[in-house]
Amino acid sequence: LAAIDSLTGCEKAISDNMEGLFHLSSSNLTQSSISISLYNVLLKGYHFRGHSNSPEFELRVADSLSQCLRFYKSRNIPACQACLRLMQEVALSSPYVRLRLLRAGNVNATSELISDNISNLEFVKIACLTLSTLAYEIPEFLCGDGSGQLALGVLLRVALMYRTDDEMVAACFTAMWSLLTFHRGARNKVSSTNLFDILLDLMKNRHTFVDETIRVIVAALSALITLSSDAFLTRAFDKGLAFLLTEMLTEDLTPSTMEETLRAARWFANRQDQARQQLASSGVFETCMRIIWATNLDENLLIEAMNTLSLLLYKNTELA
């Protein structure tokens, strides 16, 4: 397995023999060197082949990953890292596989691993991305197990500790977006945290990040806006969020980041009257018009600009 893992250009051969490789090795996965090599080899196969394996095979791999993560959680971090990297890929194969991984308690296990190894940057980055995939479209009946609250608390620690690391911020807030969007337990707890202050601070220092990281930060903010109380949104307005979003929309952002920023502005304006008035009078209207007049822009950005424009014009006869 180690020899196969070290070869280059053999991805097709691996992908054609994934089930055989797994069958030969699966009874020896309590040996960490076998686990690490097998999971690295299978990951190569997935990257080449995608998710065209049989559903039964995908579920067997998912069960194996769950067992190994439990076995190595307090024993061997490199084995856990290889396990989590493959788990992220396997979780993408289908909702059924993701459900199997969720039922096995992998959200809690991953959160605990992040908490226990928070100073291991590479490991935490992989674990955050795995967590974001596991939490994606999480079924409501699994939301009462406390995993969302635990994961949110751990991710807040990661955000504070690595707030200047571009890749880590992106990984952390990708997971945060999944939790806030799909996990009721995380949504219920968020009002008692300092997440908004962390997001605001990151947005003010956005020029230190690449554009995709900025997009992820704003996506997490959008999710936070949609579920926050009126009192929270008033506080956000008082802290200058409308001004900050307006400022960002005048900058040279990529289409996907511009789209996400317009969405955040629209949702904020929809929930908060003062924000709608300020955004309408501070140049966001002109930004939307400029996007609509352009002929070579992304279609999703065009749709978001028209949606934002509609909201700004609503009950604003002077602007209309």
UniProtKB/TrEMBL annotation:
InterPro entries: ARM-like, ARM-type_fold. SUPFAM superfamilies: ARM repeat. It comes from the Eukaryota. This is Uncharacterized protein. It comes from Compsopogon caeruleus. The lineage of its organism: Eukaryota, Rhodophyta, Compsopogonophyceae, Compsopogonales, Compsopogonaceae.
